[in-house]
Amino acid sequence: MSAAAMTDQPVKELGEGEAGKAVEAGRVASYKPAVVGAPVMAAAPAPTGAGLGERLQVALQALLRAFVPPVAGLALLIGLWHLATLNGGGIPSPGKTWDAAVVLFSDPFYREGPNDQGIGWNVLASLQRVGMGFGIAALVGIPAGFLLGRFAILSRMLNPIISLLRPVSPLAWLPIGLLVFQRADPAATWTIFICSIWPMVLNTAQGVTRVPQDYLNVARVLKLSEWKVFTKILFPAVLPYMLTGIRLSIGTAWLVIVAAEMLTGGVGIGFWVWDEWNNLKVEHIIIAIFVIGIVGLALEQALMLLARRFNYESR
Amino acid sequence: MSKKIVQIENVGQTFATKKGTFTALRDIHLDIHEGESVSLIGHSGCGKSTLLNLIAGLTLPSTGVMLCEGREIAGPGPERAVVFQNHSLLPWLTCFDNVYLAVERVFSAKEGKVKLKERTREALALVGLSHAESKYPHEISGGMKQRVGIARALSMQPRILLMDEPFGALDALTRANLQDELMKILAATRATMVMVTHDVDEAVLLSDRVVMLTNGPAATVGEILDVKLERPRDRLALAHDPVFGNCRAAIMEFLYQKQLRVAA
Asked: Residue ranges of the ABC transporter domain (chain B) (predicted)?
């Protein structure tokens, strides 16, 4: 106890002494600003340097907060996957899959006959089919949605049919496509068309019915022509709804293409998955799953960006 | 007596509802003369906006006759410009383009693009918004939006300006500002105006006549008050003016004694 008190005492005195010196130095500084000014100026960069460091630290922390959880999630997934493959079995390990991926992506655009092409070609072929079916669906579905939204009689006429057909799995339409077109490729496009048309029709129609009455009253007071009403009021007001429909459509189309191609064959990521199953290259199937996921994500994100650009409400 | 712009004769308005027909307005007789400012005032739900929509032609009367310059009102038209309560600017067009849409519709048959743009700029200058012409509605304040709405309506050079609680959504200071500016604009353009309001001071300050509606359902014109105040009017000077005070008292008496709502 007494030892602690004795060691405490001198420390306290020293502190007071230093504080006194500091006050004295302060007085000197205020008496001779010109002389003391120089060192202060020289010292000035030090605090801003510390500020920069601090800001860097904050930015780094934000970066860590943004990236650590997703990376940890991915690591967890790969870890579990690795554990699951430790005892052998049919599922290839992450390492083996990675090696296969390196080989596969080192030459994604090779062609050795119609049934043996690089993964790049397969993805592009699928994208082309989706683009085709989806494009035709947009050309038909968006105008149809406008008509349905604008004319209540049409909507009452067609809504029961749409409600009936919408929940049908697109693959149920595949045989009809095969029957009508007699070839696998247009049948796959047809399947994409039929599955991606509904969200665009319904969302566009809903957008049209939700155009604020105020805007339409403005049109009525100004006696705008139908064309002006469409270009200046209906189309911009409906655009966000339309883009939501497009986004839902393209998501579904990408889901369906894999299944459709498994059934129709040819070149395409879906067929490729089936082909690799027949070759028992399971690691390629896992790679395909990742590729399909990444492409789907990219399509979705691109449309989200587009939608944000045209959303006048949030701007 | 100056020329009648709008004549409302024995007009009634009923709506079909699930519980049968609902009578909103009955036996309305009212003439609006050239150059005058008329306010429609009454408790909420009394049908003041319904009456304004009838003049605008946005709805058609169930009974009676409505004439604008001697011709039956069969629908809306740019000669009866409406300033909507919530400004109703198109959010994807700039202030300039919002006004231009109206100018183009009314004058493009006779005038070239240069003249149309000049008209648009003049209308925006009239409401003091030349600096904001390239801004979008979401980038400007509520008061500015309402000014653009007024500019859009005035740019069409309407025979009559119809305003549906134009300042209802604004704060008191902005509202006073816009009221003063509206008075200046009306004096400069000698426009005819009908305004729906529930603000007693606003009605007296801006109007030559205040039309008081009885409570709905089946509302009708209860009293019409002539506001015999000289123009230009100054809100500060009027605060102590006995005529202003009497007008105010008359309206208050109508609203809070004769038409007191049992359940507000």
From this structure: 6-240
